[in-house]
């Protein structure tokens, strides 16, 4: 029997890792052997730490996006998981800027063809930001296309963060989602809470009924690592698979050298410029011993004590055109108590 693949997609900070945590918390023996494949843009593994303790194997693919720069590694990663664990299910969490169509393309590798079956694409939408992101990224064609494709190609839509969304905005978000995808079941959620059975019974929506697909844009410049296949293609003068989006999204990590002032750090996160789409990591505050996990999206800052003391004290920033030096300068002002 082939291994079932569930693809979890959605923009940066929409609630994908939260969904995975809920799913792992509800898994029972009958659900069989489950392996998680996580992909993060930067070199630092922030989300993987959040999944420790559930007792499931987690394969991490860092520093690139499986929809483009490290798509070749997706095939290798899946082959490795299949041979090491022979799982019944693989849950793939994509980066927030992955175009699901490109990931699906990566899943159709001939070596995987008869070994895996894509059961469905579950897309988590941050209802509190969806309209804003849609209009803000109008000028960035590739980014708006990705956000829309994450909805367009979903087989199940979780309209998340409804607790942060006014009813009139939520109604507009749902109208927009329906415009993009009239067929996928649409569920309103808070903290990505949904019955595991709903996810596992997701059904693929047949391709002809979808809106016209927009082809991937091939580009010359790539800041990400090229996959082995892309290197071969490039040496042969063929188009590589990297879509333009990954070129414009950057990420950098900052390693804390000591404890910071909690209040100043919170203000620093709230004051981050709009072109920082996401920040997350682990930090220690003056006068406290517990490690703090922090999460930032442009309308939300969350901090909570993190019991697992494994992670490094590090902050990861994801955005476009970020003034890295200024961000670091501002962050370093938080060391003073
Ligand atoms: N208020 C509120 N917060 C939420 C909800 N869902 C998730 N969050 C919080 O939003 C933050 C981002 O959630 P994640 O699950 O890490 O989002 P993600 O999509 O995995 O983020 P990336 O992997 O960085 O793209 C976390 O701090 C969550 O606790 C929700 O429905 N309401």
Can you describe this structure?
The chain is an alpha/beta fold and 337 residues long. It has 2 domains: 3-232, 3-Layer(aba) Sandwich (Rossmann fold), CATH 3.40.50; 249-332, Hypothetical Protein Yjia, Chain: A,domain 2 (2-Layer Sandwich). The protein is built from 12 helices and 12 strands. A 7-stranded parallel beta sheet has the order 3-2-4-1-5-6-7, with helices on both faces. Strand 2 (34-39), helix 2 (47-50) and strand 3 (58-61) form a beta-alpha-beta unit. Helix 3 (71-85) crosses helix 4 (100-107). 42% of the residues are buried. The protein binds guanosine-5'-triphosphate (GTP). Residues 10, 12-18, 47, 96, 160-161, 163-164, 190-192, 278, 295, 302 line the site of guanosine-5'-triphosphate.
Q: What fold name goes in the CATH topology slot of the largest domain?
A: Rossmann fold
Which residues form runs of ≥5 with pLDDT under 50? Answer: 211-229, 231-246
Q: Which small-molecule ligands are present, each listed once?
A: guanosine-5'-triphosphate
In the CATH scheme, the class of the largest domain would be Alpha Beta
Overall pLDDT metric = 84
Q: Kindly report the name of the CATH homologous superfamily of the largest domain.
A: P-loop containing nucleotide triphosphate hydrolases
Report the strand count. Answer: 12
Determine the structural class based on helices, strands and strand pairing: alpha/beta
**CATH architectural designation of the largest domain:** 3-Layer(aba) Sandwich
Helices and strands, in order, run as EHEHEHEHEHHEHEHHHEHEEEEH
Going across the major beta sheet, what is the strand order?
A: 3-2-4-1-5-6-7
Radius of gyration: 20 Å
